[in-house]
Design brief:
By secondary structure, the protein is of the alpha/beta class. The chain is built from 16 helices and 12 strands. The radius of gyration is 22 Å and the shape is globular.
């Protein structure tokens, strides 16, 4: 029986898994309930699925419409989803869900899938599990209202919903894939999917152009300026320009083909400034294309425990911004060698075929203890997409408004204490 992959695409991860399963002659269907830039090439002929996609787009578009219109699109969506679920029971043995979503609203289908002895797996990618109070996308957007009390109430409600969702998934799923810097609300052992790999698809045909660089070109290609530290990167670049002759370019909303061409036309790609992972989608694409890429953040202490199993090209703190760029511009020999070694590792071990095979082995009860971790030992507090100074100010204020309960970490007193000490420290 087949594998279900869906219903939401994140950074092309499921698309890469689908390709890998195909390469292993394992039957899998990639099912999108929400259209995205990754949807092209995976259009379904199923009328039911098309109605689900259409009704979801209508629900998003008419989010401020009348109650009756909302109910209509929701009811149509769920009716078709129920039909899809019933058909899926006869079609799929394995279900790999993404972004905390399954087939029915509020994951009401999970007990049904469990009853019919289906294998259930969830892959978490970031904001779907990360606490809202350390998520730069949420904080930076909400900060614009300047209403901390309102923001605090929104986050408090979101945290309660997220914890409830994760608890339900932990109870009913057979496997949970995430990573240590977003595992704050989990209680059961998780599988670190970074130790499995990122099944990225690199196109065979890219317009390769020989560029004669007279002035180094530094490019920043944020999928979301709110999370990539784009505003701060611009400021750092202006300071850097006073010392180095460079050309800085910024792009967004690129299709895959154009993205790869931009990467190849640049000397250095600046991925993001406040990442909680050492390798993100863009940085991996750059390394696979043997291009210099820098990614900054505060989670070095967490990921150094995996340094012998995940080669990291450049992942350092934002304070090292100029130092790292200078080394790359000056063609540091050691960094050149490191880039080639990292590229070799990803091509050999993170190919779509090998990553998909690892997932299939796990789904069939192969041992995976060596790639699992206990979320009870979560230590990371600096989040993603936000500077330490801004985060500290924010945490202190929401704690004073709502109390420690807003952290949702009563089951992890040591982690809760770390957040308190950071929020009230002089760091």
């Amino acid at each position: 029986m087949k594998i279900f992959l869906g219903p939401i695409e994140i950074a092309g991860y499921l698309r890469g898994l689908k390709k890998g399963f195909d390469e292993n002659d394992i039957q899998a269907d990639l099912v999108y309930f929400y259209k995205s830039s990754f949807h092209s090439g995976y259009e379904s002929s199923s009328s039911i699925l098309k109605i689900i996609q259409f009704s979801n787009s209508k629900r998003a578009f008419n989010c401020e419409s009348s109650f009756i219109i909302k109910i209509f699109w929701f009811s149509l969506n769920q009716l078709c989803s129920i039909i899809f679920l019933l058909l899926s029971l006869f079609k799929y043995k394995y279900f790999i869900f993404s972004y905390g979503k399954s087939i029915l609203y509020n994951n009401f289908d999970l007990p049904i899938l469990k009853f019919f002895k289906k294998k259930i797996a969830f892959i978490f990618f970031g904001s779907d599990a990360r606490p809202d109070y350390i998520d730069g996308l949420i904080i930076n957007k909400e900060f614009s209202t300047n209403d901390l009390k309102k923001i605090t109430n929104i986050i408090d409600n979101n945290i309660k919903k997220k914890k409830k969702l994760i608890k339900k998934i932990e109870k009913l799923a057979d496997f949970i894939f995430c990573y240590p810097t977003i595992s704050h609300f989990f209680t059961k052992k998780c599988i670190n999917w970074y130790l499995i790999g990122f099944p990225q698809i690199i196109p065979n045909k890219i317009n390769l152009i020989n560029y004669n660089y007279t002035t180094p070109i530094l490019s920043h290609i944020p999928s979301s300026p709110f999370t990539k530290g784009t505003k701060e990167i611009r400021i750092l670049i202006e300071k850097f320009k006073e010392k180095q002759n460079i050309i800085y370019k910024e792009y967004n909303n690129l299709n895959s083909q154009t993205l790869f061409e931009i990467i190849l036309s640049s000397n250095i790609i600046i991925d993001q400034l406040y990442s909680d992972v050492p390798i993100a989608g863009l940085s991996l694409e750059c390394i696979r294309l043997k291009k210099n890429v820098v990614i900054f953040g505060y989670a070095q202490d967490i990921w150094k425990d995996y340094s012998d199993r995940i080669p990291i090209f450049i992942y350092t703190t934002p304070d090292e911004f100029e130092v790292v760029l200078n080394k790359l511009i000056n063609n540091d020999v050691l960094l050149k060698e490191k880039l080639l070694k990292t590229n070799y590792f990803f091509e050999k071990h993170w190919s779509t075929k090998k990553v998909a095979k690892k997932y299939f082995d796990i789904l069939n009860n192969e041992q995976f203890l060596d790639i699992s971790f206990d979320p009870k030992n979560t230590k990371y507090i600096y989040g993603c997409g936000i500077s330490k100074d801004k985060l500290k100010y924010f945490l202190k204020n929401i704690i004073e408004i709502k109390g420690l309960s807003i952290l949702g970490l009563s089951d992890k007193p040591e982690l809760e204490k770390k957040f308190i000490e950071f929020a009230y420290s002089d760091e």
